[in-house]
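R.M. (postdoc): so does anyone remember the format we settled on? I'll just put the structure tokens first.
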């Protein structure tokens, strides 16, 4: 880029006293009544269910008096919001909520005394709020072995399983459950269960048995939440279509005076004797014997981190600036790796190298798709590692597996096409999930350029969490599944440039982009800001145009690093790093409107596009409610009275892609309006102008109902003001408006050694 034409992004500094204000509380509201109200008949039915639960657990209470059982409470489908839950009934003295395993399906800690207390509260309750809550209860029952074994498969030739125990939020209870669990295993003749280190808050054990009926007997124990076969993984692809021999002329030369960012490759290994890739490898952690190694897949992935654009005809959607590699060899073509060993290897490598290796590329998938209701243990473990060591996992969305009967997808999909969902660990809440788009086409190709690739799996993750967030080139196929002249070019580890397809090869492009993005900005940005910039730039460049398309490609296709980090004359981009106390809200008034976007009669024109990426609190015990906090955002107009209390706030933007919804109950808000999603993209477009005295930004913290969280909520916000016709001098006008406003802004700084590379 010609630096004389470079228009820098603007960083907006919040003024704590002015921008963070206490939340304004609303007045009392009439609680909604469900199911015709809590009639005498419904009371008697609920009491019968409570008594049935007590009787079901009678023998367990006698055998293990210090081990609570678990009951479930199902709320009406229109009563899922936290405003319908009452801790006065489900409190510490009765049956407190300890989690959930489905939308509106609460899990309760149930003791003999607690169930008796709950019964008395139901009988002696006259509070209108509590009666409204009781009317919303559709069902109440015992959590039984059928719930424990929902994912259980007896088709497990190795006889290796994992058992996850309940967390009752009490250390003494946790100890009692673990002791009783080991005792039950011993009574059934099982080997001593081995605790698996997934996450500091997950109590997961490996258990072995060749007799499935022994495992089903163990599932009778009230302390077990879930039993399933321990997933295993191995490499599948081992070769591509050879195009030509590797050529040094297309390969970047390593600049010994340049500090390249590093990307960890968690894969099948890179040969330490490889003259092409070894000079770019800065460290290794090898856990697979040489005899079991196949270097093809990791070499292809690693070569894209180093030289993607050079190998792919200088296509601008392939990154140009190289990264160095860290090689974690854990996967093999010839032997399976169990999920717990894979998690352990990743955690160990990250712990040892997190100061220098900040981005970790995971171009693999489990066979089974993600659950609708529960985030995978693998994803939860990655989230925990990411938080503890401040690293970013970039995860491939996964591919269709024709060998397992999964069909490639045309675009748009046929009416009878069955969607194949992303696979763990792509459901990681902290991770960046990457889908694949076609970067080229032929007359007989299955999809067109920039359509979702025919093999790329679709979201969402559990609880409608949007995944993938972005897409990058992963290749295309013809009607017969042939990728010749339609795939991605990479290095195969054997001296060849080969052609292949897969989300495996889209993910390293994102790993390169986000690693370079973080490295070149001063001061070093948060991962939230890096993700926000990638997603925002992708939406501006190639957005998902329809809601049905969104689950396949995310919010868009990020362009080059140069484009991400700069503005055009007809637009301006502003960055906000937010830390919002949970009892406060962020309110930024006097929005700087470029003069060229004001009409003669005072209306405001243009497009206002935002991307908000937050870091919600997490609790794996709550299943689909794993994300415990949320941020809502609006760009709109408002008026204040003389005391500074806002009287009116009118939203001017729509979340993108704009969905169709029949109502705005909690389930619909989660499914189509991105409630509880850590990523939100919005657009307010006024081509003819809108009447407003001013615009303002408003960001508010929302919490789930059971536990109050006091920590600040971190978020990164990117806002762009755009002239849709790309004609008006928006940038210069916006800079003048910023100078005359109360906003405190500065230019986004790029490290000097990077400026010549952009």
């Amino acid at each position: 880029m010609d630096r004389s034409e470079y228009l820098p992004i603007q960083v907006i500094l919040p003024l704590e006293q002015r921008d963070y204000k206490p939340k304004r509380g609303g007045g009392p509201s009439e609680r909604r009544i469900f199911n015709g109200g809590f009639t005498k008949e419904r009371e008697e039915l609920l009491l019968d269910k409570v008594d049935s639960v007590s009787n079901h657990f009678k023998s367990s209470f006698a055998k293990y008096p210090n081990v609570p059982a678990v009951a479930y409470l199902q709320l009406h489908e229109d009563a899922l919001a936290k405003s319908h839950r009452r801790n006065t009934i489900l409190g510490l003295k009765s049956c407190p909520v300890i989690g959930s395993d489905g939308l509106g399906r609460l899990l309760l800690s149930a003791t003999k005394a607690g169930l008796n207390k709950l019964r008395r509260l139901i009988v002696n309750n006259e509070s209108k709020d509590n009666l409204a809550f009781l009317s919303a209860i559709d069902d109440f029952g015992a959590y039984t072995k059928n719930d424990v074994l929902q994912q259980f498969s007896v088709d497990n030739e190795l006889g290796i399983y994992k058992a996850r125990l309940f967390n009752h939020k009490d250390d003494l209870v946790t100890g009692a459950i673990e002791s009783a669990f080991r005792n039950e295993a011993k009574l059934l003749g099982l080997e001593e269960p081995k605790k698996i280190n997934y996450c500091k808050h997950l109590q997961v054990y490996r258990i072995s048995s060749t007799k499935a009926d022994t495992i089903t007997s163990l599932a009778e124990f009230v302390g077990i939440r879930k039993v399933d076969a321990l997933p295993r993984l191995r490499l599948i692809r081992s070769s591509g279509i050879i195009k030509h021999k590797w050529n040094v002329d297309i390969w970047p030369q390593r600049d010994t005076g340049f500090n390249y960012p590093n990307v960890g490759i968690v894969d099948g290994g890179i040969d330490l004797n490889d003259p092409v890739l070894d000079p770019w490898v800065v460290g290794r952690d090898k856990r697979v014997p040489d005899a079991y190694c196949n270097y093809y897949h990791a070499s292809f992935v690693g070569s894209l981190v180093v030289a993607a654009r050079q190998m792919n005809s200088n296509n601008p959607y392939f990154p140009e600036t190289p990264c160095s590699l860290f090689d974690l060899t854990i996967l093999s073509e010839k032997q399976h790796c169990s999920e717990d060993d894979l998690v352990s290897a990743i955690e160990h490598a990250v712990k040892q190298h997190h100061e220098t290796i900040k981005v970790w590329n995971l171009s693999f998938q489990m066979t089974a798709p993600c659950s609708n209701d529960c985030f995978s243990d693998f994803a939860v473990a990655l989230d925990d590692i990411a938080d503890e060591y401040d690293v970013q996992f970039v995860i491939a969305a996964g591919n269709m597996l024709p060998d397992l009967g999964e069909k490639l997808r045309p675009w748009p999909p046929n009416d009878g096409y069955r969607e194949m969902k992303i696979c763990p660990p792509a459901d990681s809440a902290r991770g960046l999930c990457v889908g694949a788009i076609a970067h080229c086409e032929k007359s007989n190709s299955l999809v067109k350029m920039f359509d979702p690739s025919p093999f790329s799996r679709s979201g969402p993750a559990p609880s409608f969490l949007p995944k993938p967030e972005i897409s990058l080139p992963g290749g295309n196929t013809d009607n017969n599944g042939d990728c010749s002249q339609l795939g991605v070019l990479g290095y195969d580890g054997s001296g060849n440039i080969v052609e292949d397809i897969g989300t495996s090869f889209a993910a390293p492009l994102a790993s390169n982009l986000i690693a370079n993005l973080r490295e070149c900005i001063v001061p070093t940005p948060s991962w939230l800001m890096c993700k926000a910039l990638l997603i925002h730039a992708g939406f501006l460049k190639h957005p998902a145009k329809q809601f049905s398309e969104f689950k396949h490609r995310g919010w868009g296709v990020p362009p080059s690093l140069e484009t991400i980090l700069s503005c055009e004359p007809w637009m301006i981009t502003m960055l906000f790093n937010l830390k919002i106390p949970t009892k406060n809200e962020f309110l930024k008034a006097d929005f700087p409107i470029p003069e060229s976007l004001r009409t003669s009669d005072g209306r405001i024109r243009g497009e206002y596009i935002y991307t908000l990426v937050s870091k919600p609190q997490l609790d794996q015990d709550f299943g689909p409610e794993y994300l415990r906090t949320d941020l809502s955002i609006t760009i709109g107009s408002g008026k204040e009275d003389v005391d500074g209390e806002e009287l009116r706030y009118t939203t001017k933007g729509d979340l993108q892609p704009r969905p169709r919804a029949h109502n705005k109950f909690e389930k619909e808000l989660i499914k189509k309006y991105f409630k509880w999603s850590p990523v939100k993209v919005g657009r307010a477009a006024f081509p003819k102008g809108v009447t407003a005295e001013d615009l303002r930004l408003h960001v508010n913290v929302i919490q789930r109902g059971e536990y109050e969280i006091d920590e600040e909520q971190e978020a990164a916000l990117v806002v762009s003001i755009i002239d849709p016709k790309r004609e008006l001098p928006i940038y210069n006008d916006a800079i003048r408006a910023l100078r005359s406003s109360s906003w405190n802004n500065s230019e986004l700084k790029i490290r000097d050694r990077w400026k010549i590379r952009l």
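R.M.: ...and that's the designed sequence above, right after the tokens. Also worth knowing: The longest strand covers residues 629-640. The chain has a mean pLDDT of 88.
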